[in-house]
Each structure stands twice: as structure tokens, then as C-alpha cells.
Amino acid sequence: MKILLLDLGKKLRGGQRQVYYLARRLHRTPGFDPLVALPGKAPLRALLEEEGIPHIALPSASDLNPLNIFSFFRIVATQQPDIIHTNDAKGATLAALAKGWLGEFKLVHSRRVSYPLKARSRKKYMAGDALVAVSREIQEVLVEGGIPKERTSTIHSGIDVERYTTEKRHGPLLTIGAVGALSSQKGFEVLIDALAILRDEECIPDWQCLIAGDGPLLQQLKDRADQQGISRSILFLGYRDSREVLPEIDILTVPSVDGEGSNGVIKEGWASGTPVISSDLPSNLELVTHEHDGLVFGNRDARELAACIVRLASDPALAGQLAANGSETVARFTDKVMADKYMALYSSLLS
């Protein structure tokens, strides 16, 4: 079965890692023949090359660049895939165009954000034979946007748990942490406001906060920390692989405020044996069970987030139990589980 995976992302973020995990699993499974189409300068390319996964470069990351359209149509006509599987919004546009002109394949779209479906996006998603949401919330959004329910399904994103270590590098300070793009949906301003509340707490040990990630809100977040008088307690690390940072973190916070898909940082926290605190976005609640494998606080509620941090800092037994349970929960969200579900979907489309 020939599978053409398409991703036009220019950075290596959660969606691109999912493409890598899926392509790797397909490449290792008899009966599946994957090919990844991606921009020539995409960092995902290096991961594919390390695994020997076949891939082909597109001229740009644009969905409507005429040269990109021509190149992709030529790839489709030459390779004649059984399935084209898109993994980002621009890729969905490009593949929908190919479906209209060269429709001798089944088209699968994966959608990774929970924002409402825009009217102009509906047409490209309607071109899909199957639409995969990475959370039940996103599946509901697709149906509410007019996509027939029978074409939709939910397959949560997965991680390779073997890439993470549970060994910790504890320092002299309690280390609170967060990992992710410094963009509005990740809610890091809520974390900074919560940390300002912690400044006046006397029942927890001295602390620091590590924020790993880059993005357009870096200076705004630094300014907010300075205004709150806690800039000396927060280290903005820039982009760092989560595997480098998680061993240093005692409490992992996931304060995302909207648009979340199937949060990879939560799973990475579980895989690294780190207690997790997350906001109560519906997609996060599909993963975290409050007081079992994490603590949950009200979305945008900095005071409640601060209280959760105090609770874990003051109760090592609870923190340890949450981490232990998280290590069991993450087994349901591995890259293997995710890829096996996609392979079953592909087979059903061609049966």
C-alpha cells in the first residue's frame, strides 16, 4: 500500500513529529510503502534521512504557489499513491486540489487544532474520504462545521516513550516548568501570573521556573514577568528539546488556553515521570484525570494554577503518585498505538 504523507510545516513542532512517527512505523511495517512530501528546507527532513524514510522535496511551504502545485501534481501522477494523508492546513488545501484533478486515490486529512472550521476551509475538508481529529473535541468541531460524521474519527497523537528518561537532575530549587511555542494559545501569561502569586507563599520551598520554547510572545512574556517582579525567578531557555529540559523539572505546567489538539507535552511529562498540572480545556481532559495522573485547574485561572503548584510542592507523596499513574496512562498514547490506528483506517478505505 503506497502512502503519500504531506506536511508543509516549516518548523519541527508537534504535528511534524507525528508525521515522523507515523512514517517510521509505516516504513517498518511490511505491506506499507510510505513517501513524505515536504518543503525542501523543512527540519523534518533530517529525521526522515536518519531513518532512511523515503521523502521528496517541494519548492516551498506554500499551498497556492503555482510551482508547488505543479510539483505536487507531478509527484502524485508519478508515484500513484493509494492514500494521500495531509497533516496541516496548507497541505490539506494542496491535496484537495490534487483530488479534484487527479482523484485516483483516497484522501485522508488530520486536523490538530480545535478552532471552529472556517467556511472557506470546509470545501477542502469535504474533499477528504476520511477526516481524523486528534481529539474528540476536534471531531465534534468538524461535525459542527458541516463534515458528515461518518467520515470523521478520532486518533490521538502519540509519542515514542523510549526517547524519554525518568531520571531526574534535581537542583537546590524547586523547579516549575513549561514547554511549548510562545504563542497565545499556550497560555504562558497565565503561568507568569500564577508565579507572581507564589512569590508571597511561605509554605513552599524556594523555586525557579524554566520556560522552554520560542515564538512571537517572548518579549511580551518577559515584560509581564518584569512587571510582576519575578523576572529573576524565570529562565526563558529558547527552543530546547523537551528531553533535555524535563529531567530538570519537578512540576510540569500546561496552561494552554484554547485551540489545543492532543497535547504532546502532557504525554512527555508522563513519559519522563514528571507530575503534570494542566488547564481544563476539553482536549486536555481527554488525557488527564484530575487527581489520578495529574491536577487540573480552571482555564485562565492563575490563582487556581498557583494553588495546584503549592499542593504538589507541599505533598511529595501526591506528586509521586500522579507521576507513577501518568507513566501507566501514557501507554495508551504511544506512537505505535497511533500508527496502528492509522494503518487500520487506510486498510478500511481500500477494502
UniProtKB/TrEMBL annotation:
Q: Which GO terms describe its molecular function?
A: glycosyltransferase activity
Q: Name one Pfam family in it.
A: Glyco_transf_4
Q: Which range is the signal sequence, renumbered to this chain?
A: none
Q: Which UniProt keywords apply?
A: Transferase
* Annotated ranges, domain Glycosyltransferase subfamily 4-like N-terminal: 14-163
The protein's matches in InterPro entries, at most eight in alphabetical order, are given as: Glyco_trans_4-like_N
Classification via SUPFAM superfamilies: UDP-Glycosyltransferase/glycogen phosphorylase (SSF53756)
Among PANTHER family, the record links this protein to: GLYCOSYLTRANSFERASE
State what protein this is by name. Answer: Glycosyltransferase
* Taxonomic classification: Bacteria, Pseudomonadati, Thermodesulfobacteriota, Desulfovibrionia, Desulfovibrionales
